[in-house]
């Protein structure tokens, strides 16, 4: 029999790594276990305190760094290349091209899909704060941030949601349909697809607006799709 | 830049040092980028550069005597409204409380709660098992809540 360790259980729960079934089971346990309830409560308070310390980098610092980076001379790439080196280099390039042609094929992901999966359902790189266009709550999930920007040239608006257990789900919306992920499972109507890339579940739909939902819990991603009426 | 700034603020005790650390991080990242070392994901990569640069700051900071009156403070802009000024004061209290945590807990909290990395990503960046990261963050959060409760600080 496993030893009951409220600290460990609460840490795992709040760490966001539990799957839906274990999470639900722990949530039911917390209602009856005073020790676990205290652990979760105090750590949650600590987390919201820590989050309140988040700051924006001051504008003068941004300008200072921009100036410093632009002041650095670009590294020169011009070198004396010997004939033998040219032969070796040509061989490597040919090998790389052949490898790309034979290994890329259908498994290569579109850059937008790769970026969404690589963000792990979290914040994407190029973005600015924007006004929310989706509900503040989606089931257990609460809206924590809304950003707009471009992902690999595609203009998007991103809504980030998080639940009490720390799971993050990202909803990307775009003016045009998202590319289809390689290896995606398509719905019968052909307008929605789902897939999983490096442990990140993706759900894409064209209606009511082109949307791409990403998160590390497939059940939660599907749930968000249903709540938003994506089809 | 907010990601690096928030991390640097938990690694360098003084505002000026934190800003220097942000600049050093960006210079190192730019140098690596122009040398062709381009990561698949930028955020964990640049955070790792900041962590490495920050470790030397922490080593340097530990070898000099700290003046408690010169600790990190949250400086409100002159045109702050009253509510913003109050929020700024609360942030200052929280920043001071964060500095009362052991370094490993403070860094883990900065990576997960301030910057938003997952436990798995944080574990990879600091080279510790995921369970250790979860324990550090959990203990740090508890300690932070208790410190502020003891000092009578309220937050939204």
Describe the biggest sheet of chain B?
Answer: none
Order of helices and strands of chain A: HHHHHHEEEEEEEEEH
Q: What global shape of chain B is seen?
A: globular
Q: What class would the helix/strand composition of chain B place it in?
A: mainly alpha
The strand count of chain A comes to 9
Range of strand content of chain B: under 5%
Biggest contact:
A-B, 44 and 52 residues
Number of distinct helices of chain B:
7
Sketch the major β-sheet of chain A: 9 strands, antiparallel
Averaging pLDDT over every residue of chain A, what do you get?
A: 78
Total of DSSP H or I helical runs spanning 4+ residues of chain A: 7
Regions of chain B with pLDDT < 50 over 5+ consecutive residues?
Answer: 67-71, 74-79
Q: Write down the overall mean pLDDT of chain B.
A: 80
Characterize the quaternary organization of these chains.
heterodimer
Uncertain regions of chain A: pLDDT < 50 for 5+ in a row?
76-81, 96-107
Helix content of chain A: 25-40%
What gyration radius of chain A follows from the Cα positions, in whole Å?
23 Å
Terminus-to-terminus distance of chain B:
25 Å
What does this structure look like?
The complex is a heterodimer of chains A (231) and B (156). Chain A is of the alpha+beta class. Chain A is 39% helix and 21% strand. Chain A contains 7 helices and 9 strands; from the N terminus they run ααααααβββββββββα. Chain A has helices at residues 6-14, 20-30, 34-52, 59-71, 83-103, 111-118, 218-227, and strands at 128-129, 137-138, 141-151, 154-162, 168-173, 185-186, 193-197, 200-205, 211-215. In chain A, strands 1, 2, 3, 4, 5, 6, 7, 8 and 9 form a 9-stranded antiparallel beta sheet that branches. In chain A, a hairpin with a 2-residue loop joins strand 7 and strand 8 (200-205). In chain A, helix 1 packs across helix 3. The model of chain A is unreliable at 76-81 and 96-107 (pLDDT under 50). Chain B has 156 residues and is an all-alpha fold. Helices cover 70% and strands 0% of the residues of chain B. Chain B is built from 7 helices and no strands. In chain B, helix 1 packs across helix 2 (15-34), helix 1 (2-11) packs parallel to helix 3 (42-62) and helix 5 (103-114) crosses helix 7 (130-150). Chain B is globular and about 50 Å long. The chains are: A alpha+beta (231), B mainly alpha (156). At the A-B interface, helix 1, helix 3 and helix 4 of A face helix 1, helix 2, helix 4, helix 5 and helix 6 of B.
